[in-house]
Known about the structure:
- The complex is a heterodimer.
- Chain A is built from 20 helices and 29 strands.
- In chain A, strand 24 and strand 25 (603-613) form a beta hairpin.
- In chain A, helix 2 packs parallel to helix 6 (126-137) and helix 5 (105-113) packs across helix 7.
- Chain B is α+β, with helices and mostly antiparallel strands.
- In chain B, strands 2-1-5-3-4 form a five-stranded mixed sheet, with helices on both faces.
- In chain B, a hairpin with a 2-residue loop joins strand 3 and strand 4 (53-56).
- Chain B is globular, with a radius of gyration of 15 Å.
- Classes of the chains: A alpha+beta, B alpha+beta.
- Chains A and B meet through helix 9, helix 10 and helix 19 of A and helix 1, helix 2, helix 3, helix 4 and helix 5 of B.
Amino acid sequence: xxxxxxxxxxxxxxxxxxxxxxxxxxxxxxxxxxxxxxxxxxxxxxxxxxxxxxxxxxxxxxxxxxxxxxxxxxxxxxxxxxxxxxxxxxxxxxxxxxxxxxxxxxxxxxxxxxxxxxxxxxxxxxxxxxxxxxxxxxxxxxxxxxxxxxxxxxxxxxxxxxxxxxxxxxxxxxxxxxxxxxxxxxxxxxxxxxxxxxxxxxxxxxxxxxxxxxxxxxxxxxxxxxxxxxxxxxxxxxxxxxxxxxxxxxxxxxxxxxxxxxxxxxxxxxxxxxxxxxxxxxxxxxxxxxxxxxxxxxxxxxxxxxxxxxxxxxxxxxxxxxxxxxxxxxxxxxxxxxxxxxxxxxxxxxxxxxxxxxxxxxxxxxxxxxxxxxxxxxxxxxxxxxxxxxxxxxxxxxxxxxxxxxxxxxxxxxxxxxxxxxxxxxxxxxxxxxxxxxxxxxxxxxxxxxxxxxxxxxxxxxxxxxxxxxxxxxxxxxxxxxxxxxxxxxxxxxxxxxxxxxxxxxxxxxxxxxxxxxxxxxxxxxxxxxxxxxxxxxxxxxxxxxxxxxxxxxxxxxxxxxxxxxxxxxxxxxxxxxxxxxxxxxxxxxxxxxxxxxxxxxxxxxxxxxxxxxxxxxxxxxxxxxxxxxxxxxxxxxxxxxxxxxxxxxxxxxxxxxxxxxxxxxxxxxxxxxxxxxxxxxxxxxxxxxxxxxxxxxxxxxxxxxxxxxxxxxxxxxxxxxxxxxxxxxxxxxxxxxxxx
Amino acid sequence: xxxxxxxxxxxxxxxxxxxxxxxxxxxxxxxxxxxxxxxxxxxxxxxxxxxxxxxxxxxxxxxxxxxxxxxxxxxxxxxxxxxxxxxxxxxxxxxxxxxxxxxxxxxxxxxxxxxxxxxxxxxxxxxxxxxxxxxxxxxxxxxxxxxxxxxxxxxxxx
Lengths: 741, 158
């Protein structure tokens, strides 16, 4: 057994691959006619599935991920170009087609393997096993903060390095010189001693016939020329001129528009609707009863919308039609009680004997937390353009999982997946919502009824009320401390476990732990919400450890530090956030500072929030200092932007985010009653990166889990009030305010 | 048929039934830079200028724009090869993430700077808080406005 360290991970992939290299990361391009057909134009040489070289010496990186503002097209192209020593000014990118050839082998392997230990005998076959699994799952996801750390590390870098090696071999063969005497720079191979040089493009036809190296040498960080720099993002210029094309902006000749109203109560059906188009309904083409939803097709969205709004629709009553939020939470509580009483809790983690240790503790800390359902509220409402014709299906949409969309379409229409084409567009926000296929399936069902393309657009209300939601949860937490304030026991009973599997783990060295959960279920559909289970557990763990620190009468920063002594990365991140936030220095009356730290998706993030609670009880977050160890930030400016984004996203949820169920349906509909953070409410954010040299961590999600506890811990510091129920805006803080005269 | 002037160009459109300007601009004129976000003037993604004033096109009846100069994101650059100062600042600050709200943000920012070439932080907050950015790029939007403001100051000083 051996630990898969960063170097070993790449090395093992290459060595054992064998399989990784030949099977996946640098499968030959031109020799696979299927791949060439998918990505190449006339005259271009496909070096491997991840890159091609054009006659004008342009290198194009093929990126198997969707762009939703995280800068993935730029960062991954940089990783490939750096290893290849390509001229960055001549590097382009192309989003990979939604095809099994680009299924996320590396991503799934990264998730499953991570830093896990594999039995030696499996190493040779592990890649093949994963490839089969990924292809059969139709998994081409952009999510899990995974693009750089898995695809970038294991496909892009290796592909770039291998291509360079093949080009050098071709030059060595042509010039009859040893390969060791060659250098590569700016897309040119040089032989300095004979002053010969050739461009990548000139060498490409010969290079593609060279045997693929099984061990392309990767650069060490000191050799990086692009990785670690902040190159201007490819996607930005079109986003300031209005030219950038999102799913919403697709225009297909002959296209009509549709909008939809699904049964408000999840799982309910349409009972009755008159689908006859009357002569007074100008521009309306068709009214469709889809069983669980009604759609209107018209010449424009507006005609479709006003027709749908005016249409009397009766929906079936279900067992959930009278259900309210309070009852859902009561059901959860009862399920937790029953599971506890009957010994039916599932165990997430157990160490020692927490029950006995809690009984023996000198100080007992107990808290119950309650968190609401949350919607995603992407800026671009859900939409998809579909055209079903001649046994084929064409789709235009912004998807975090275009291959999954293809598979879903094929299944729905009972046609071969090869008959389905997905034209993936820019995503106007993803946050996990756009990994679903529900909207595309609706668009297909609508387009199937007509012989022209249809663009289905959801209203903001439909978007809010038919999202897939982060769970509403209840958590019961207990800790036992000894006389000195040191924790000797920790018990956490939570509900719902999705992923990542380690989210409920705590980073603190506390003996005697018992972490258990129930899965009561509800009729409200669940979905991946930025940072997924970390978004709840980051708050729960970091708020409760703050409660424990205060019960122990210790400084929350110092307490965290003392309980993570063995974790040098945590120690450095904590020290950095301490220094940059001026922790411990005086603040005005009714101001407070709060700290929180969590590791998720391979990155460790600590945040200190500075808040002011006004005389009206309103919370204003003035400043957030963020210290992060992502191992190595490939694109520092982009990484910082991701930290900022994750903080504002998590802040909006903590401050005002709440979806409630009334009569079985979502009560909120638009930004007036599902408010999000605006500029006047946004704190100043200062981000500081530690390049620790550890395996690269993710950027899209890890700053989100930490902001809520940093803010509520700061509110406690300012007011002495502990927020245990979200959103923060629902808590009355007025009584705590001290006069500031 | 109604006649609208958008970015200096005449468009003959069907503006019946109280149709908001947003849908006419996007679907009938094919100018898709202006975005649909909420439909009730809550998010600012649909911001355009009517005679230089920022309006939410999702709640502005198209007929009410007849006879006025409508400017969209496609129409603020001085010419084909030159970006507006605000657009340039947006690139230099690497402001957008997903980018969906940015047309509206830029239109609000341009209107602000036309009125007030050197706004304070508070004035920027006041002018821009009707524009939601779910990627949370508020800090960068503010920096870009200040950068554009500085550029305007230095060019007017010449």
